[in-house]
Amino acid sequence: VETSLGPNCRPPFGRISVVEVPLSRPDLASVAAEVPLPGTPLYDWGGIPDFTPGKGCHDIQVFVEMALAAAACMGEGQLWDLSDPVHPRITTHIDNPAIAFWHSAAFTWDGRYVVFGDERFSDQDCESPTAGAVWIYDLDHPRNPVASFQVPRPQPTDFERGLYCTAHNFVFVPVPDRYLMVSAWYQAGTTVIDMTDVTDPREVAFYDAQVPTGSDAWSAYWYDGLVVANDIGRGVDVFRLTIPSVRGARSQSHLNPQTQERLLR
After folding, report:
1. Which helix (DSSP H) or strand (DSSP E) does residue 118 occupy?
2. Could you say which DSSP state residue 163 is in?
3. HEC assignment per residue over 164-193
4. Could you report the per-residue pLDDT of 51-85, keeping only the tens digit for each?
5. Could you give the CA distance from residue 199 to residue 176 in angstroms, rounded to a whole number?
6. Strands 259-260, 59-63: parallel, antiparallel or unpaired by DSSP?
7. What is the tens place of the pLDDT at every residue in 120-166?
8. pTM for the whole structure
9. What is the dihedral of CA 144, 150, 155, 156, to 10 degrees?
10. Is the peptide bond before 26 cis (omega within 30 degrees of 0)?
């Protein structure tokens, strides 16, 4: 039966595809496995019209050296053991009723913490300090969050116009001994958050455009001394971050924002 989402997209979904890509012949990529997601809750999209309830994960962040993945699975967070990459195994289901939609994830480079982002689809509760926040979890005790963070300035919110009080896509700066996270934050622009004290995250830099159009930042990534931000209305902004705490950041020959390769010790 064909659904409104297309002939091959049928609820309840509830699986991921593992794709094998020969690096010398990427055109020969093939699906190595389709892996079910047992215990993943059905997500109903908060009653948004025309969205079919289903099971699945929005973003999956992989830490290669740790053989670990953090999966933002709409209705919950998950941690996966990737020791056998063709057969990922869910090790932890993380529930947090304060998170409306588990959207993104990123690990600290020392492998001690993971941050999940909450994407909000409603403007009714954006006055709450945790609405659309990012949440920090200790990987040794991942059931309960250590802290959360929301940017400390007003954000215009109007769901019908696509204005959200929420973090979107983010990465950590690869600098030893500090936790600096670069994130897009829609109408709040692009932000850098110091989470070195995980119990007291603080914004240490931001760019929130007002003219000629206001910020609507979709993603923001650190790469070799630069912050590259993709803004829905403005296009691409490239920033040089000069705060002292980024000194010593490791150079990277390449970047896939969804993949962290090596631990920084």
Report:
1. strand 113-118
2. B
3. CCCCCEEEECCCCCCCEEEEECECCCEEEE
4. 778 889 999 999 999 999 999 999 999 999 999 99
5. 19
6. parallel
7. 876 556 777 788 899 999 999 999 999 999 998 877 766 666 567 88
8. 0.92
9. 0
10. no
